[in-house]
Amino acid sequence: MIQFENVGLRYGLGPEVLSDLTFDVHPNSFQFLTGPSGAGKTSLLRLMLMSLKPTRGVVRLFGREAASIPRNAMPGLRRKIGVVFQDFRLLSHLTTYENVALPLRVRGKEESDYRTDVTELLKWVGLGERMHVLPPVLSGGEKQRAAIARALIDQPEILLADEPTGNVDPPMARRLLRLFIELNRSGTAVVIATHDLGLMDQYEARRLVLTEGRLHIYD
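Request: output the structure for the sequence above.
Response:
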């Protein structure tokens, strides 16, 4: 689903921050992306999402070389990818429910077709009583859970999650991990960027470890 071949990334004229990345993300796979702070985890996720272009090398998404994908085809491909950002990116004028339902509304679905799914997912992430409030009222952990629910609601083919449990307590982190595992079992490839070794130790999965801009893979 995602292929990197000798990919390098630098910002401006500076040194490469990522070098010689070669790896695949297969359908139905589950992997943790880890490494020390500043190792480049977020940059790597942005390369996977194609919101950042590599300085060199080849990135393929769903079998297509990213550099040759027409601009008008990008939105359709990105709809296959669920993303959880560290800064949440919730729309402040929409309620929690409306934020989570937004990907379905954009696709033209009727609310009667998704109301139950959105409500059940919000209950699962512990926001059943917060679905009708606006994001400014939510705590950091609640915003994180709302962002996760929004990324999952359309059952993406790939989920890219950047520190998805960074603002929640350990019991909720375990609950969210179970949700990611169930999503993976239903057919979604999952990439979770985290520095939480305790979280990774709870589930046996492939580890992509970034160290000084280079990737080491442990299956």
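Strands lie at 2-10, 16-25, 30-34, 56-61, 64-65, 81-84, 158-162, 189-193, 206-211, 214-218.
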